[in-house]
Amino acid sequence: MKFIDFFAGIGGFRRGMELAGHECVGFCEIDKYAVMSYTAMHLITEAQREYLATLDLRTRQKEILKDEYRNGEWYASDISRVDARDLPHADCWCFGFPCQDISVAGKQVGFEGNRSSLFFRVMYLLGQLPSEERPTYMFIENVKNLLSVNGGWDFARLLVELDRGGYDAEWQTLDSKNFGVPQHRERVFIVGRFRGRGRSEVLPVRQNENTNKVLQIGEYDVERKNSNSYRVYEISGLAPTITAICGGGHMPSIKLGDDIRRLTPIEHFRLQGWDDSYFRKAEFINSNTNLYKQAGNGVTVNVIQAIAEKMR
């Protein structure tokens, strides 16, 4: 199945979908540093990587934003400027639209906010396509508070918009800790299925609450337990939800014996289901500050893969 990766970040949707056997045909992302990581992680050839390695970091960052490093894949930076006629054909549109106006950490203005209202831009693009060209699936992710912000009316609006577009919706709140990573991260996932197409059910997917996954911490292994120990956790603890905010008291720390330290960028990527080879590709092009932000802004690869496998 072919898919487009909207609000792509560093490609957590893409990686999970690809692991399930699906094919990405294009992506849209406005943050240039995320585009740098995305391109380095998913698109450049080894020959291009070798050339970029000869450049200093600032020159490398400028260079990788050139069209040639996307090797022919469709790309747009600003979804508000995308014309539906320019979109490549896809069987699925994947997107975790901005959550700043929905999250409990924000002002919770919901769809009245400038960022989270971009959901309606996606639906506008969908409406510009004839029925036969619309994707079979709309695969959506957002914070759990989407279900209750503004008394639940915003979520109702989302369902109405999907219905008007021709989609029946299924949704489920899933926690990353039940998909093989030691992070407590609850998110709501919505699958819109175009009427008359696709299989009858994608959601719910099974959550395995008894998985015993470990986070590699230097010389240590941190075993996942079924208890959230907040911002500082023991060597056998569960990490709290990592966020895009780094610095100060916002970054999870780990206690190793008598020592307490903050998690490193590579550990944040591991908490999101990335293997180290993908982190090294992102590290090749970005600063630690941006890597922390990109991990916190993303989706957990393992969760996306579990849902994507049911779409096959």
- Beginning-to-end CA distance, first to last residue: 7 Å
Assign the CATH topology: Rossmann fold
Major β-sheet, in short? 7 strands, mixed
Q: Quaternary arrangement of the chains shown?
A: single chain
Shape: globular
Q: Quick one: how many beta strands?
A: 12
- The percent range for strand residues is 15-25%
Give the full name of the CATH homologous superfamily: Vaccinia Virus protein VP39
User: Helix/strand-derived class?
Assistant: alpha/beta
- Helical fraction equals 25-40%
Task: Tell me briefly what this model is.
The chain has 312 residues and is an alpha/beta fold. The chain is 29% helix and 20% strand.
Describe the structure in your own words:
By secondary structure, the protein is an alpha/beta fold. The protein has one domain: 3-Layer(aba) Sandwich (Rossmann fold). Helix content is 29%, strand content 20%. It contains 10 helices and 12 strands. The protein has helices at residues 12-19, 32-42, 46-52, 57-64, 118-127, 153-164, 265-271, 276-283, 288-297, 301-309; strands at residues 2-6, 23-28, 74-76, 92-95, 137-143, 167-175, 186-194, 214-217, 220-223, 232-233, 253-256, 259-262. The strands form 3 sheets. It has a 7-stranded mixed beta sheet. The chain has a 3-stranded mixed beta sheet with strand order 10-11-12, with no helix packed on it. It has a two-stranded antiparallel ribbon with strand order 8-9. Strand 11 and strand 12 form a beta hairpin. Helix 1 crosses helix 10 (301-309), helix 2 (32-42) packs across helix 8 and helix 7 runs parallel beside helix 9 (288-297). The radius of gyration is 19 Å and the shape is globular. The protein starts with a strand and ends with a helix. The relative contact order is 0.16.
